[in-house]
Amino acid sequence: MLKPPAPQISGETAPVSGIDAVVIGASAGGVEAVGTLLSALPPDFGPAVIVVIHIPSTNDSLLVAVLATQCALSVREAADKDPIGGGTVYVAPPAYHLLVEPDRSFALSVDAPVNYSRPSIDVLFESAAYAYRERLLGIVLTGANSDGADGLARIRSFGGRAWVQEPDTAVASMMPSSAIERAGADLILSVQDMAAELGAIQAV
Q: Which of 20, 122, 147, 186 is catalytic?
């Protein structure tokens, strides 16, 4: 069984390449933070971007419409069995776990909440780690629980990269702090600085 690397912090300086997908998890304050990241993506951004934000399941989600106004890429709600294509932003639907299958398609689940959340960041991250391995970038942003920490550790254990929002810059610091403690990170940055790094990812 693969073990996650020891938690560590490093600072990548060269543009990142070799990424097929970016998975992003956020909770309290996350809509604004994710919007900042997406606004930095150029129209020819190559990787798929898959987003989980904890939102109330009782309301119709306007998340896709909100994020689409801030992003040059196509933004859509992920659907069961959909193949995952590059250059597209996929958003987890409310009240469903979003998983990535080994063939790089989506699956939706109504299994019990994980870390009190459905969709769960951990569920997305852990399934994506198996599908994309070293070609995955995981990003944990602001939030008030520990969802995403175990998933980020799984991503790193398969050779993927991990970026975390600097806790002091987050609306809610528990989620990024837990991720750093559990998984470590390759970069720890403010959302604004992270957006610049994300937009500079180079295709292979």
A: 147
Q: Each residue of 157-181: pLDDT tens digit?
A: 999 999 999 999 999 999 999 999 9
Residue 9, Cβ neighbours under 10 Å: how many? 12
d(CA 123, CA 147): 9
> Is 115 within a domain?
yes
Out of 20, 54, 122, 127, the active site residue is 54
pLDDT digits (tens, 9 = 90+) for 64-84: 999 999 999 999 999 999 999
Range of the domain at 169: 21-199
> Could you say which DSSP state residue 132 is in?
H
Q: How many domains does the chain have?
A: 1
pTM above 0.85, yes or no: yes
Could you confirm whether 193 is annotated as catalytic? no
* Position 5 in a domain: no
Specify whether 27 is catalytic: yes
Which bin fits 56, alpha (ψ -120 to 50), beta or left (φ > 0)?
A: beta
Q: Does residue 9 lie within any of the structural domains?
A: no
Bridge partner residues of 100 (DSSP): 106
Q: What is the CATH number of the domain that holds 78?
A: 3.40.50.180
